User: Which sequence fits this backbone?
């Protein structure tokens, strides 16, 4: 039987002309009893848009017929892009007039109507909607006497949902609701729906976060059978399980995490060997002992893909009994782990490693703050005395982490040091403080150790040619790199050695050059946008950003499904159980896990960012009229964004500058006063006043104080 991949490959060949199902069956010499299945595959591929069936019942690849298949990404202004699913093909711009009833994230087929001279930029119209993405919409209800509308929270869904009077179901003006679409939009006609849930008034405490959870369809509760399975897990580890593992309970092993963390995935240990090399131990919670393949717990974990860390809560991948309980590496209790010992020489190179099942009993639950205080402040006598038996280990770890960072630096690994926010809420969910999240020496120690461990594990399994879930970061598109190179020329920089491809060292060199300068944030931000997004894949193509040939996520199985799946594969190989039949099955499993995990990660990041933006806007509603110092972080044609020291960004609209007529200089990314010649450019320090904070739009407006 011919595979889908082979069929697509055949149809994409230059010499291919559209063929009927009979002709295709004939050319592949299919046996009589395989033909019915083959026709069924053709039909399924056509339904999914993988291939196109012409009016003359001939099949072809969409891209060979001037068509594009992909997800529609809408813009708030009404136009959109079909995101290409095929490497080497650019996205297709769709004008608002040619959306033809499609909505944000729908999977569609578009006909390309126009290409640019270089063939890289295309414009088209949507001719078919393959799958709908938004059967339920979260938004605000606006009512009238005879009918109502739901205005979607997601402003990329720019059509209001018409609600007949009979379908209002108790919703009132200003309430957050969920509307189920009953009639899809058509050209020049809004979608129609029914209210299926009322979440609460938009200004009520908690409604804002619940709306974001519902909008992203994040699971709030675990199904009953999953809870039952978790509750049935014994707290005590059977003695026979301990006996068959390497016993590390008398070793000096500890965790270092944030003070508010409950799901403790990883613990570390360190020794200096007689030859002077370091022996680093990374010990990761053995979640797979409790979460068996295809169990209810496993199916639910895959469905969720990742834990989601919102500003006021965690939506865990695994039930709390596991995530905060039997799997979490709490101090002074026995825990099952998968350990990696790495012998590291004086140059920071791993010269020997060992991966094995273990049982540990951590001696302390350390925090990033305490370890950093011990290493950075020798005057904290009480803290040093409390952990005196670990202080030497902390110092050895600091020395090793700096060595590993230096080695990673030398090969070209790019380290963006963006400030992250720490949002403090009161008991009612009101933001009372926003500040920069700390990234101190202890954070960097754990970061380096986990990076090394992930890389070591990936390298081993790549060499073993075993089905695996890799964390890949593909090389960037040169078109985007060339545009970025042109942009930085305005600031007097250029990327070295950029011709047909770019090496990470060229970007790393630029990151170092802009460090501490006014233009640092905008250049790093635009550099990040020019790079591709890291994702999970069963195929290893390396990690560009880390300048690593092999990389995976192994160290967080409590909160990431790929790590859980990797642990399962590792344990199977340790027991030498992977047969040819199992190998084939594993290839399917890792492909599914990679795809779902990448999608769920993207969704989680969107939800996390949205809750942060929401609380930042709410925080600034309490500071309307107040003045702050800030830095111009970016300049656009419509205004400039100013970032405050606490990471909050607000927009200064160009219309608010009334002392002169300001002209946007796109080449130099600045505004210049026509009469006064006063300029506003990236990196300039300015004094601003907060004039507006819109919680529903998650937007903050500033005005520059003259």
Assistant:
């Amino acid at each position: 039987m011919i595979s889908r991949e082979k069929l697509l490959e055949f149809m994409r060949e230059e010499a291919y002309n559209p063929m009927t199902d009979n002709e295709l069956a004939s050319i592949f010499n299919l046996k009589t009893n395989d033909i019915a299945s083959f026709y069924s595959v053709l039909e399924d591929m056509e339904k999914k848009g993988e291939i196109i069936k012409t009016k003359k019942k001939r099949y072809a690849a969409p891209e060979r017929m001037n068509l594009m298949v992909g997800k529609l990404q809408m813009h708030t202004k009404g136009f959109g892009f079909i995101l290409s699913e095929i490497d080497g093909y650019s996205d297709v711009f769709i004008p608002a007039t040619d959306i033809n009833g499609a909505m944000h994230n729908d999977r569609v087929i578009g006909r390309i109507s126009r290409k640019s001279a270089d063939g890289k930029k295309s414009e088209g119209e949507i001719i078919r909607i393959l799958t709908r993405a938004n059967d339920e919409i979260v938004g605000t209800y606006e009512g009238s006497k005879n009918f109502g509308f739901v205005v979607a929270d997601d402003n990329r869904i720019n059509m209001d949902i018409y609600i007949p009077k009979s379908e209002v179901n108790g919703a009132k003006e200003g309430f957050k609701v969920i509307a189920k679409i009953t009639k899809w939009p058509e050209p020049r006609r809004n979608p129609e729906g029914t209210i299926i849930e009322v979440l609460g008034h938009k200004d009520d405490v908690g409604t804002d976060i619940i709306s974001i959870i519902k909008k992203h369809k994040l699971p709030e509760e675990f199904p009953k059978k999953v809870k039952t399975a978790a509750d049935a897990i014994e707290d005590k580890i059977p003695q026979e399980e301990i006996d068959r593992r390497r016993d590390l309970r008398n070793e000096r092993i500890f965790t270092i995490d944030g003070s508010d963390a409950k799901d403790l995935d990883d613990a570390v240990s360190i020794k200096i060997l007689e030859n002077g090399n370091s022996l680093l131990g990374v010990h990761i919670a053995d979640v797979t002992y409790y979460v068996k393949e295809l169990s209810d717990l496993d199916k639910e974990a895959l469905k969720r893909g990742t834990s989601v860390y919102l500003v006021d809560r965690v939506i865990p991948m695994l039930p709390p009994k596991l995530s905060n309980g039997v799997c979490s590496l709490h101090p002074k209790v026995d825990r099952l782990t998968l350990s990696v010992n790495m012998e590291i020489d004086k140059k920071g190179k791993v010269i020997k490693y060992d991966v094995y099942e273990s049982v540990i009993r951590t001696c302390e639950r350390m925090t990033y703050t305490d370890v950093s205080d011990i290493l950075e402040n020798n005057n904290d006598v009480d803290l040093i005395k409390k952990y005196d038996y670990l202080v030497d280990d902390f110092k050895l770890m600091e020395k090793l982490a700096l060595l590993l960072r230096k080695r990673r630096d030398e090969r070209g690994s790019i380290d963006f040091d963006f400030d992250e926010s720490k949002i403090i809420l009161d008991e009612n969910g009101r933001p009372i403080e926003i500040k920069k999240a700390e990234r101190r020496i202890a954070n960097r120690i754990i970061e380096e150790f986990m990076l090394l461990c992930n890389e070591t594990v990936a390298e081993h399994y790549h060499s073993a040619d075993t089905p695996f879930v890799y964390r890949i970061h593909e090389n960037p598109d040169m078109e985007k790199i060339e545009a970025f190179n042109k942009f930085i020329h305005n600031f007097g920089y250029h990327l070295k050695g950029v011709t047909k491809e770019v090496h990470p060292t060229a970007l790393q060199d630029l990151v170092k050059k802009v460090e501490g300068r006014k233009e640092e944030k905008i250049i790093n931000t635009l550099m990040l946008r020019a790079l591709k997004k890291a994702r999970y894949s069963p195929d290893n193509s390396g990690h560009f950003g880390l300048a690593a040939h092999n990389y995976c996520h192994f160290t967080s199985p409590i909160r990431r499904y790929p790590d859980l799946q990797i642990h399962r594969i590792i344990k199977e190989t340790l027991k030498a159980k992977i047969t040819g039949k199992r190998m084939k099955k594993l290839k399917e499993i890792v492909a599914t896990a990679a795809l779902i995990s990448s999608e769920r990660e993207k969704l989680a990041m969107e939800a996390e960012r949205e809750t942060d933006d929401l609380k930042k806007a709410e925080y600034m509603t309490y500071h309307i009229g107040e003045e702050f110092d800030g830095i111009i972080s970016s300049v656009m044609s419509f205004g400039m964004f100013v970032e405050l020291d606490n990471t909050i960004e607000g927009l200064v609209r160009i219309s608010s500058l009334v002392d002169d007529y300001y002209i946007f200089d796109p080449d130099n990314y600045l505004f210049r006063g026509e009469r006064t010649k006063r300029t506003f450019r990236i990196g300039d320090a300015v004094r601003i006043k907060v004039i507006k904070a819109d919680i529903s739009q998650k937007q903050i407006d500033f005005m520059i104080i003259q």
Summary: The CA atoms of residues 136 and 499 lie 47 Å apart.
